Structures are given as structure tokens and as C-alpha cells.
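Table S2 (continued). Query chain:
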Amino acid sequence: MLSNVRDKAGRTATLAGSTLLTWGLLAPDVIPGPGLLATTAAAGIGLATNSRVRRAPNGVRGTAIALYAAPHAGVAGLLVCELLAPAGAMSHLVQAGLIALWSGATWWIRPGLLAREVAEEAVTQEVAEVSEPEEEAVVDEPDPVYASPEAQWWAEEIATDGGIAPHTVLLAFRKLTPECLALIIGAAQRGMPVPEMSKAGLSAKFDVPEELIETGPVPGRGANVALVIVGHRPQLAEPEVDVDRDEETWAEIAEVAIPGVTLVEANTYELRRELI
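Corresponding output:
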């Protein structure tokens, strides 16, 4: 409703200005003086009552005030021209053209409304800039560094979230035989036990029967590491039985000292210290 009132007031002011200029053209000795005072008062009252223009942001305040006061300045300038212009038909014709130009331009452009729109747009932009959240600086995370290509393969293929052995890392590996691989697996988080690993998943990944995959502790280490054997575990070779050294020694002695005597049994005794 307030905008409608201002719209009608602006149209009325334009008509009043056109009327004042026309009277000034007809009575240049009477109207221009009081008309200048009335125009100045109208501009002051208009700015005083138009808080949007007066409180516009600093960047556009001067522009908004200049737009609002432009029609009043035009009326004041034309009144001065009417006061100083020489008499004559041509002079009146030029002044009438200027009055018509001012009236049409003011009616079409509507400087008062334009000034308010400029101020409102500036306020809207300021509010948007204040309320707009600051963009967080995007920090590129460095690529993870792996101890070996095998460790990278384990992290990307086995230890992914929801994978076969999530939250684990490959610490070491060794190929025991062409058909057997030993892996030392650690927990990704220091001080935590190695999560349970899926034998079925490892079987599918390595293409090895599930019964040939073993998981267990690392001898001498805590639960933060685990041993994984993939394939046929090699069997330890049985130690060879050494030849009885006692028999060899007796055979050497008997060959020289007492030929034909065979060692049947040998016992070892610890001599008491006083007999030595």
C-alpha cells in the first residue's frame, strides 16, 4: 500500500512540476522565485521522508540521492532559464519544448522510484554477501605412501572398507615355496588387534582352496599382527641321524689296540672332582 501511495505522490509531483513550469513561462516575473523555493522544499521533504534512499549503502547512496533529486534540479534549472530568458516567440517556443521534454522524461523514467530500486538492490546484495557462507578452502589430501607395490595392492584390493580384510595393512610377505606364500598382516590403527579376515574372500582372491589358507598369530608378537599362509605349507625336513660317534671312535681304537673287539654298549659318567 505504501508503494501505491508513493507512486501516486510521484505522479502528482510530476504534474505539479509541469504546471509550475508552464506558469513560469507565462509569468516569468512572478513564478520563478517562489517556484525555486517550492522546488527546493519539495526535494528536501521528499528526501527526509524517503529513508530507503537516505540509508542506502555507501557505495550507491550518492547515486540514489542524485537520481531522486534530478527532477527537482531540472525544474529549478528551467525556472532560472525562464527568469533570465529574453522575451520573444522563439524563446517561449524553446522553453515550452524543454518543459515538455522534462515532463515526458520524468513521467517515463520516474527518477524517485528508480532511486529507491537502486537502494533496495544494493541492500539486498549486502545481505546476500553477509549471509553467504564462506567457502572452505579445499585442501588436497596427499596420496598415501606405501612401503611396497605389494602393500599398495593389499590396501587397494583387500583392505578396502567392506572388503576381505578391512582396516589392515601388509607388513611383510615371503614366498616360502612356489606354491606357498606367507603374509604378515597388521592392524591399520596402531594398538588395535587385527580385524577378522574372511578365509572365503582370501580363497576367492588368491584362487586357492579355502582349506589351504591358514590364519594365526605371529610367534612372539601381539594381536596387532597376524600370520596368513596361502597354499601348501612346506613340511619341515626330519633331521638326519648322525652316525654314533662312540662306535666310530671305538672302531678306530680297536683296529690298532685290540683288534677283533666290538663295542657293545657305551655309558658316560661324570667323574667326581676329587678323582680327577
